[in-house]
Amino acid sequence: MPYMQAVIHEIQRLANTGTIIVPNMASVLCEEGQWKFPHEFNPENFLDDNGDFVKPEAFVPFSVGPRACLGEGLARTELFLVLVTLLRRFQFVWPKNAGEPDLKPVFGLTISPQPFNLESTVFQFKTWMETRFSIVGDNLTS
Ligand code: HEM
């Protein structure tokens, strides 16, 4: 009996040598029943009825468990700072003659958008505040 157990464990040990496991995160990140809009880009997936931010348990892009991403805190801070900085500094516009955006995903190790061009102009924060909130003041910096 001990030898049989040893044989089975040795088979499993060597059978897995060099095996690369790629977990399919999409199975939970797009699971029906877990999300209000499982198959579309819609930030409402993370907002409750009051418009407050909520993070469902099924949100696991950094994985879970003891081998979860060690850089999650750093990555989340970077994502926030880079995106907010770009949106505050620039105005991004879909070019006039570019046709409709091609929303077919590009499959790879991660899912990416098709390559595309955007027009960007330096964002005038002062002008935006004035037009959006009717605030006029010299203390608004651009
Ligand atoms: C948006 C950015 C990132 C995403 C989505 C991400 C996602 C992941 C995922 C899914 C894993 C695999 C966990 C598993 O094996 O189940 C992982 C592992 C890991 N990540 Fe990240 N990661 C990101 C950025 C970073 C950054 C910036 C660092 C370091 C500065 C980092 C360090 C690590 C390390 C060290 C592991 C291996 C943990 C272990 O096996 O014990 N990651 N990450």
| Overall mean pLDDT | 87
Can you write the helix and strand succession as a string? HHHEEH
Shape: elongated
What is the percentage of strand-forming residues?
5-15%
Bound molecules: protoporphyrin IX containing FE
Could you estimate the helical fraction of the residues in percent?
Answer: 25-40%
The end-to-end distance, rounded to whole angstroms, is: 77 Å
Structure, described:
This is Cytochrome P450. Its cofactor is heme. It holds the Pfam family p450. With 142 residues, the protein is mainly α. Helix content is 32%, strand content 6%. The protein has four helices and two strands; from the N terminus they run αααββα. Strands 1-2 form a two-stranded antiparallel ribbon. Protoporphyrin IX containing FE is lined by residues 23, 61-63, 67-71, 74-75. The site of protoporphyrin IX containing FE has 11 residues, from helix 3.
